[in-house]
Design a protein that fits this description.
single chain, 134 residues, alpha+beta, 5-stranded antiparallel beta sheet, flat
């Protein structure tokens, strides 16, 4: 309870036109594309869906940001989209269309626990060797 998350990256629009976006969340969620507010699902509330649409006049990458705030109780957050103003067929956005800030679709490498443990042991060993020389 009582935490916030901010996701940022890029969304690839392959076909110009109008897209509907929706967030489903318990509690607050907001969606911004190229800095403009698209979906306002703010406040302390049970799970609900709010939507908005954007018309893209060109194809390519657009900055995307979603924020989520959990105030207590049940927690969920989701981001959906549909082509066209009438959003009859909302779907989860495929990872093929979402990119990290470095331009990849892969998450940044995170050292595995064994690698971190070996690294820390190496640092302890170096500290011991340098201390022994004093």
């Amino acid at each position: 309870d009582y935490y916030s998350i901010r996701w940022t990256g890029w969304i690839n629009i392959e076909t110009a036109g109008t897209y509907s976006f929706a967030t489903v969340s318990d509690d607050s969620s907001m969606l911004y594309i190229d800095g403009g507010l698209v979906v306002d699902n703010g406040g302390n509330h049970a799970s609900r869906t709010r939507s908005g649409s954007v018309t893209f006049s060109d194809t390519g990458l657009y900055a995307i940001e979603m924020t989520y705030h959990e105030y207590g109780g049940v927690a969920n957050a989701g981001l959906l989209w549909s082509t066209g103003v009438v959003a009859a067929n909302y779907q989860v956005i495929s990872s093929d269309y979402l990119f990290y800030d470095d331009g990849t679709t892969q998450p940044p490498a995170v050292p595995e626990p064994a690698t971190m443990a070996l690294f820390c042991l190496g640092l302890v060993g170096l500290a011991g060797v340098s201390r022994r020389k004093l």
